[in-house]
Specification:
Helix 2 runs antiparallel to helix 4 and helix 2 packs parallel to helix 6. Strands 1, 2, 3, 4, 5, 6, 7, 8, 9 and 10 form a 10-stranded antiparallel β-sheet that branches. The N terminus is likely disordered. This protein is an alpha+beta fold and 354 residues long. The chain is elongated, with a radius of gyration of 36 Å. It has 7 helices and 10 strands.
Length: 354
């Protein structure tokens, strides 16, 4: 007879996995604590910190959600297995019941006195008694096994339900943490934009906003001007906002998104007036120039040396802009009117925008 005991071991394994997921360190799943940003960082630094905290909270939330989905799928597989076990136990009971009834009809259920009278020989009597005893034992074992399995099933299902409730509560806390950070970030972004608009209106840059952070080492000589983005208006496209054709590639990103130098070079221009609003122009070692416009803050000064991937400012919507984005140009000279299509220009340098 095939044993079903091995399958029931999967249920404790599931509970163990759920318990481990619930007990993960707070840093891995999110601890729900308030993220405090000190005033000494300045508004620009606060936006950067909040931006990074929101990204980390989103990542933790997505990781927890994906793990919960994986555990939910596993739980559904276990439920299907348990249903099959229930059916098999029911079938086993029916089979053994039929055996017991058949044995009873063939004298297995007769009183011992009647069996002594009717047995044709002692061997027949003993053989009948052995079959009867074995059948009773099999039926009894099956019933006891079924009772133990069903009792354990009830306990396991209760534990699994409690584990799922704890997981759902954890995800709810993470979602609330993410929402709180994003609210703070949105308020700080527009405060930063308001300061930038005031500087542009006055035609005077406030100076570089130095953000104390470790410089990431890049293995490539060139990178995209933003870590994550959505491409919007392309080079050469028409529109009412431009006198002729669009001279760069726009990247749709929220206010305060860190903007980085696409390659090594030197800052040849920092300006806070005109159609481009707050802008930075970098001259590169290969003779080309790149422009980063409509910024909400700048993190470099004119004449400063910059490295590939170094933060040079934060995106915004200053100047002639209808919404938060980065206007990026590749130029032959530092001045407008010498722009080339920046997408193939970056592609030639190993940077593929998507």
């Amino acid at each position: 007879m095939r044993s079903h005991c091995r399958r029931f071991l999967v249920v404790p394994a599931l509970l163990c996995a759920l318990t481990l997921l619930m007990a993960r360190p707070a840093g891995a799943v999110g601890d729900g604590e308030d993220i405090g940003i000190g005033d000494d960082l300045g508004l620009s630094g606060q936006v950067v910190r909040l931006y990074e905290e929101a990204a980390r909270a989103t990542e933790r939330y997505e990781t927890g959600r994906q793990e919960a989905e994986g555990q939910r799928a596993q739980a559904q597989r276990i439920e299907a297995l348990l249903d099959r076990e229930r059916r098999e136990i029911g079938a086993l009971r029916e089979d053994l019941g039929r055996i017991a009834r058949a044995q009873y009809r063939t004298s297995g259920g007769m009183p011992l006195t009647a069996q002594l009278i009717l047995a044709s020989s002692p061997e027949q009597l003993m053989r009948g008694q052995r079959v009867f005893s074995q059948t009773n034992m099999a039926v009894g074992n099956a019933i006891e096994k079924s009772r133990r399995a069903e009792a354990q099933l009830v306990k396991d299902e209760a534990k699994a339900a409690a584990a799922w409730r704890a997981l759902e509560k954890r995800n709810a806390e993470l979602a609330e943490l993410k929402r709180s950070i994003e609210q703070k970030l949105e308020a700080a972004r527009w405060q930063l934009q308001g300061q930038a608009d005031a500087s542009v209106a006055a035609g005077s840059c406030p100076g570089a906003v130095r953000i104390d952070r470790k410089q990431k080492e890049f293995t490539s000589a060139w990178v995209a001007p933003l870590k994550s983005y959505e491409l919007s208006a392309a080079f050469g496209s028409g529109g009412l906002r431009w006198a002729n054709r669009h001279t760069g590639q726009d990247f749709a990103v929220p206010i305060g998104t860190p903007v980085r130098a696409v390659g090594d070079g030197r800052v040849v221009k920092v300006s806070c007036a005109g159609a481009f609003g707050m802008e930075v122009v970098v001259g590169h070692t290969d003779g080309y120039y790149t422009q980063y416009a409509h910024l909400a803050s700048v993190a470099v000064d004119q004449g400063e040396r910059v490295d590939t991937g170094q933060w040079i400012g934060q995106s915004g919507t200053t100047g002639n802009s209808t919404g938060p984005h980065l206007h990026f140009e590749a130029r032959i000279t530092p001045e407008m009117g010498s722009a080339v299509d920046p997408v193939p220009w970056l592609t030639e340098r190993g940077v593929h925008l998507g």
